[in-house]
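Postdoc handover notes: sequence design on the structure in folder B. Input tokens:
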């Protein structure tokens, strides 16, 4: 069962919204603000799932997802991309990188919760 979730989001409003939503739903939530922090946090804390923004300063969500998939210790942790990028090519690229889900902004609370429950 998915219990511990890492939120990777550079926008404070989006980060706080996801943190409150998942916390209220009973999940244990931690947050970071970029791809480099995400990789360090995942290696240290081994969350059950990751909600990953794509557009972030430094290492973006696509690059961080690729790095996590390429590491034997983190390759099985499901990543759901949460992004304003809603082109078919972006979704296809996310799938190719191994993302288990793709949520486009703006999203509803139910979209997020259903994706997390599906993991």
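Designed sequence:
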């Amino acid at each position: 069962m998915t219990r511990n979730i890492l939120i990777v989001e550079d926008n404070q409003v989006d980060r706080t919204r996801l943190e409150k939503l998942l916390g209220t739903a009973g999940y244990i939530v931690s947050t970071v603000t970029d791809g480099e922090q995400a990789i360090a946090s995942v290696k240290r804390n081994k969350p059950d799932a990751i909600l990953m923004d794509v557009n972030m300063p430094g290492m973006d969500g696509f690059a961080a997802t690729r790095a996590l998939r390429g590491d034997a210790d983190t390759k099985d942790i499901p990543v759901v991309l949460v992004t304003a990028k809603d082109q078919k090519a972006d979704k296809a690229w996310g799938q190719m990188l191994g993302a288990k889900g793709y949520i486009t902004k703006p999203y509803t609370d139910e979209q997020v919760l259903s994706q997390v429950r599906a993991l």
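Context for whoever picks this up: The CA atoms of residues 84 and 109 lie 15 Å apart. Don't rerun without checking with the PI first.
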